[in-house]
Design goal:
The protein has 195 residues and is mainly α. It contains nine helices and no strands. Helix 1 packs across helix 9, helix 4 crosses helix 9 and helix 7 packs antiparallel against helix 8.
Length: 195
């Protein structure tokens, strides 16, 4: 069953990203989903914008994908580096949606046609498109495989933590913000299923 592995993945991400339970409120407090992002001033200021984008993605039909433009523009290209942290975070969200919510497959595929290069770096735009098209770099494929497994033993917990550590080391901070995006999306999804 997928839910136990996702819950273990959430626990491992929380532990390895050093996030306190009191900071993770997307499930408990709908008004404060950005608390998961309080460790970073840039992401903290964008929490509501990610939530707006994610809610619109849920409610949009394939034919009206252009309604996502404004909320998407607000979260692109913010931060320093060749892949700004807001983009790394968004890539983590897209990665997780692709693996856990097949009902959004068409919307995610259509987003790859968005002109990302107008709002972020060319490297980041290419990477975002790559993830939207499910063409993942080798550094995250092992993590992707964990989503598909039914793990329950102590060795599986170690396997999850090993893969999280590997991804976390990507770039100066890209892996870390990617994993925060993965965690945010997992928590968002669990909240949506519970409400």
């Amino acid at each position: 069953m997928l839910v136990p592995i996702l819950k273990q993945l959430i626990r491992s991400l929380e532990n390895q990203l050093i996030i306190q339970d009191s900071e993770i409120n997307i499930i408990q407090e709908r008004e404060k989903p950005s608390n998961i992002l309080t460790q970073d001033a840039i992401l903290s200021s964008l929490g509501g914008k990610y939530l707006d984008f994610r809610d619109k993605l849920n409610d949009i039909s394939v034919g009206s994908i252009n309604r996502l433009s404004e909320p998407l523009i607000q979260v692109l290209g913010i931060g320093e580096g060749s892949t700004p942290i807001s983009d790394d975070f968004l890539i983590g969200i897209f990665f997780t949606i692709n693996l856990t919510d097949p009902s959004l497959a068409n919307q995610i595929e259509l987003l790859s046609q968005f002109p990302f290069q107008k709002y972020t770096t060319s490297k980041s735009a290419q990477l975002i498109r790559r993830f939207l098209r499910k063409n993942y770099p080798k550094e995250v494929t092992a993590l992707m495989d964990l989503f598909k497994e039914s793990l329950s033993s102590n060795s599986s917990v170690m396997k999850i933590e090993t893969e999280i550590n590997r991804v976390r080391l990507i770039g100066a901070s890209s892996g870390y913000y990617f994993l925060l995006g993965v965690l945010w999306e997992l928590l968002y999804s669990f909240y949506q299923k519970d409400s």
